[in-house]
Amino acid sequence: MKKLKVVLALLLVAALCLAMFAACAKTETPAKTDEPAKTDTTPAKEDTPAKTEEPAETNEPETYEPEDIVDIDIYVVEFTGTCTQFERVQEAINAICGPEIGVNVKLQIFPFGDYATKIGLMAASGENIDLAYLSFGAAGYSSMYTSNQLMDIKPYLSEYAPGLVETMGDYINTYAISGGIYALPPYRAYNSQGYLLMRKDMLEEMGKLDFARNMTSWAEVESIFDQVKTDYPEIWPVNGFGCQDLIMCGDRFEDAVSYDRLGDALYVLMTDPENNKVLSYLESEEYLSQVHRAADWFNKGYVWPDVLINTELGDNLIRQNVIFSEFMPSEYGVESAKTQATGYDIVAVEIKPLMVCSAHTQKFGICVPSIADEPVAAVKFLEKMYTDKRIIMLLTYGEEGVDYVVTETGEVDFPDGVESGTVGYHSHDFMVGNQFLITPWKGAGADQREKAMEGFLVAPPSPYLGFTFDSTGYDNIIASLTSVTDEYSRSMINFEQARYEEYISKLKKAGLEDYIAAFQTQLDAWLAAK
Fold it and tell me: Is residue 106 in a domain?
């Protein structure tokens, strides 16, 4: 129709042209003979007839009306007890996500000690959970996958979370099994180091700050612990001896061994990359060297004795003036992160770098449980968590101006009059979403994320990075092994040979050797297919 109009206009049949346009669009102004109709009076493009019943296309994002917004339940594990005012943070999130993606969130926040039990009971009962943070035990990936409690979200990702897919790259397959994707890891720097984290104020008071920063042996660590016992008799030097995915054997830090346990959540396996063999971690010389030192420390009074029965996190014990130090794997910026978590300035002394392996990428994450009522809405919200700085900042630090402020240096800090013990909302930055979008905390440096990314991109990977064990059919063995490790593993810090032998014997009766063989078979197949 429009092309005919132009031809007739060029032939100066203006009247006929006007009549034709009157039939198509009553509001349009007739075109002049020597120029096209102006856009302010003719919204339709030259090749498209104007339609009064449909607005012209724009680049404005779709806005959802309240009646079209879907509610989702998100279960969150909380470590520090500083998310008490989560309702207002939830409102701020919904003010963004409701109109923009048609999703409102309902945050269900539970402390670390209760979270696994709560998730396990709800998943087993079929009560709705649309998104859940992965943690440990019954809320861990292995347990939930084995129990068929995880949904394959791969069919939803390309349509509802394309930015997430692009951002994650190959790491989107961290929790991939048999072509499906059953959870997502946080997108962060997976290259980490084993650290001894200590209170800076106590080191300064003891005159040991420089000495501590330059330690390279366990004998030097013991000399500091001896002084802690003397100068601070009410504070225990440490809450244990061990660091995840690092065997602290030998006499010097350099003797420690980084290993890949292939995502084994029971901590009973290790690998030998020289011959691609899966081995019993608890029967290795390296493990025995570590537990013997742990027992020595326990008997010397360095270790908080309640560690045998109490699962309280080291960060909280430092905050509560129970312990002076803790061991932990972490990444660039750990001193700033732990200063936030403990309420004290922290000094981090590196023990040894860890290889990037599946155990790191599968440590935390988020999943859509198989009982989810709204998987599409859940995946749409995941897109926001990994691509929208506003959302991940709210989930991490709460509301700007209330829970945090941006400083002149480009970092964030508590507002005046607010501290870690009084803030209404403050969470961790490493469990879910895109950590590289989160503004660093005061003291870390405004360029912390850029530096972390640089290190992440060049970190040496494990030769087995990307391997995921399919535990289907092994749920009975895993349950039996879990029962044994729950009974014995903590007591190894107070090592007794007879109890250790009993531990290994019960593990083998529970199916340890079959468990190792299953990992070996799948690893061999994975290596052959590469």
Answer: yes
| Residue 36 pLDDT level (bands cut at 50, 70, 90) | very low
Count Cβ atoms within 10 A of the Cβ of residue 461 and give its class: 0-12 exposed, 13-18 middle, 19 or more buried: middle
What span, in angstroms and rounded, lies between the C-alpha atoms of 473 and 480? 13
Question: Based on C-alpha coordinates, what's the Rg of the chain?
Answer: 29
205 and 311 belong to one structural domain: yes
The per-residue pLDDT for range 403-437, each reduced to its tens digit, is 999 999 999 999 999 998 899 999 988 888 999 99
Q: The tokens 């011959």 sit on which residue?
A: 275
Rounded CA gap, 164 and 365, in Å?
14
Instruction: State the DSSP string of 445-505.
Output: -TTHHHHHHHHHHHPPBPTTTT-----TT-HHHHHHHHHHHHHHGGGGGG--HHHHHHHHH
**Residue among 266, 311, 288 nearest 481 (CA):** 266
The yes-or-no verdict on residue 387 having pLDDT over 60 is: yes
Domain that holds residue 370: 66-188+361-458
What is d(CA 342, CA 364) in angstroms, rounded to the nearest whole number? Answer: 20
Q: Is the dihedral of CA 247, 250, 251, 255 positive or negative?
A: negative
152: tokens are 């394959």
- C-alpha distance from residue 363 to each of 10, 27, 172, 279 (Å): 71, 62, 14, 21
CATH code: domain of residue 117: 3.40.190.10
Residue 523 lies in a domain: no
Global model pTM greater than 0.70: no
On whether both 227 and 342 belong to a single domain, the answer is yes
The closest alpha carbon to 151, from 302, 360, 321, 374, belongs to 374
How many other C-beta atoms lie within 10 A of the C-beta of residue 438?
A: 20
332 in the same domain as 221: yes
- What's the rounded Cα separation, in Å, for the pair 247 and 225? 21
Bridge partners, 367 (sequence order): 132
Task: Give the CA-trace dihedral at 269, 275, 276, 279, to 10 degrees.
Answer: -10
Distance CA(416)–CA(1), nearest Å, equals: 67
In this structure, are 295 and 236 located in the same domain? yes
SS (H, E, C) 377-438: HHHHHHHHHHHCHHHHHHHHHCCECCCEEECCCCCEECCCCCCCCCCCCCCCCCCCCEHHHC
On whether the CB atoms of residues 307 and 298 are closer than 8 A, the answer is no
